[in-house]
Design a protein that fits this description.
CATH architecture: 2-Layer Sandwich
Number of domains: 1
Largest sheet: 3 strands, mixed
Order of helices and strands: HEEHHHEH
Distance between the termini: 90 Å
Number of strands: 3
Helix content: 40-55%
Oligomer: single chain
Strand content: 5-15%
Length: 215
Amino acid sequence: MKMRLAISVVAAVLAAPALWAQTSGARPADPVAAPATKVGVINIQVAITNTAEGKQAAAELQSQFAPRQTELQNMQRQIEDIQTRLRTGATTLSDDEKARLGREGDQLARSFQRKQQEFQDDSNEAQREAVDRIGRKMIDVLDKYAKGNGYTVVLDTSSQTPLVLFASNQLDVTQEVIRLYDQTYPVKSAAAKPAAAKPAAPKPATPAPSTPKPQ
């Protein structure tokens, strides 16, 4: 299960317009002297999912929800098996058996729908929390990058309402922001396993008492 990041969710998480603009205060009196505008574009969705933290979150979500996904797949196969038995045994099964299989299939179908909805709700919530965690930090990273590189405007190309119809690849800062994010928020590797205790050095053998020689 891939971590699907809906654009609307991303926009809500970022809690900011898809346009970052640096203002310099009062408008200069001489329009000719206005500073040149430096514009960049970024795909926020790609940026979030391709950070090391984003990839780690996707893997963790996959592992977390895999058992429930397997359970749903097994239930679906059971429902299909019952439907097949009813179809192929239309003329051979007794009425009681058909009724029993029908009730069993109905119960499984209701349980499947309930579990499927719970799975969808829980996985969406977990994804939203992951996007919220990464997205909020992404704002700070993007702000730092834009100011440090003299950008006047940075536009988000992943918006549902496209803000950019064309942009040269030279304007795209997505990969640079991903790199800066990974530097700022490095993913912690798994804790190193404690080193195995060294075996204690064997004690020297105690010499056996010598037997006195006969006189």
